């Protein structure tokens, strides 16, 4: 005998389909609990759901700022400004520039924010930022805001190629950057390094020595020359420049990383490892070079487990790193 079917009862349950606002809320909660990796995952989902919502992207930039990924934060904010007129971006970019030590850039963006939103949510923060920034009032040396936007785009593009050791791709970007902003010294140091590793060693050394004459105490000149002379086998010249760096302990995380990488590149793995240990990991996670050379240094000083852990995290964060040979097969 066929069994009687139970009559389907009506239900008031409404299926829950998460949307961008839900993901954003979860991202903010994770951020407030300092679970930054989780916050980034939720925020990416929110942006995917609502790609035209500038608030979501700005919150992503705030997370990047909190972990010290200032370049990544400014890249997000620049994209927002290209597609909207979200005024908060100007202050957030100013704040990131201040962290990077680019105080003149920070001042301009903070002032731009106050011009556009004198009573805005970040107005007091912008005023406080301006109070601690030392700058030159010579208007002839000031860039326009459009110039600053261009500078940021070139900086981020060059940063990507340099960090991924794409030297030949970096060269034309840096050449154009130097042409547009001839006083931007960092581009000149990066250009020398890109020249050297793309095969133009003599030209790279010649230009780096010229920069050293202009700024005899430049950390970047000594770091580059230490690497160049080590690679070319001029050990006396190498020792002269690496000896200068051994006694330098900078305050800025970007400069700390530069020195740690320099020691690693020149075979000073113990010194490099100690420098990497003192770095605030959260502030340099957006640098593939951090994971590349920290893992190599760890492996060389007898910490293979740590080396593997660093390499795996680096490949997860920077997929292009996975195409390299790893710390056990150093270049």
From TrEMBL:
The keyword Cell cycle does not apply. It comes from the Bacteria. The keyword Disulfide bond does not apply. This is Tetratricopeptide repeat protein. It comes from Oceanobacillus piezotolerans. Keywords: TPR repeat. TPR repeats lie at residues 20-53. The lineage of its organism: Bacteria, Bacillati, Bacillota, Bacilli, Bacillales.
